[in-house]
């Protein structure tokens, strides 16, 4: 009887819900994200705006980017810098390499929103996490995920922008 129980239990365990990163951020996460916004984000925001060539309005959706259980990692380059910020900078630099690109970006890009929605963010098909409508560019990529994919993210964003500018 004991063996049957163990076998049945081993069949049911994979059906148990896994812990999700989408749970509401706790105090540690809120504190860590507030520190990120104060200490790290201003320089990152300036780098993005410098690459754009103008002070584009940027909304960093802190609540959605604060993954539960990762508060100690928010300042790690692989958390946001390599997954979102660096691809944006590189893409804007590619777009603004000449006057035509600078003018097009400045005329068409009104704002940039950076967020993470677990239900709609792609695992690796990064173009699926991008929208550019009515001058609003939205980037929905998971922080701290596939941090080495700077080039594929940059390419996805650059391709989208080039098609819309």
Automatic annotation (TrEMBL):
<feature type="signal peptide">
    <location>
        <begin position="1"/>
        <end position="22"/>
    </location>
</feature>
<keyword id="KW-0732">Signal</keyword>
<protein>
    <recommendedName>
        <fullName>Chalcone isomerase domain-containing protein</fullName>
    </recommendedName>
</protein>
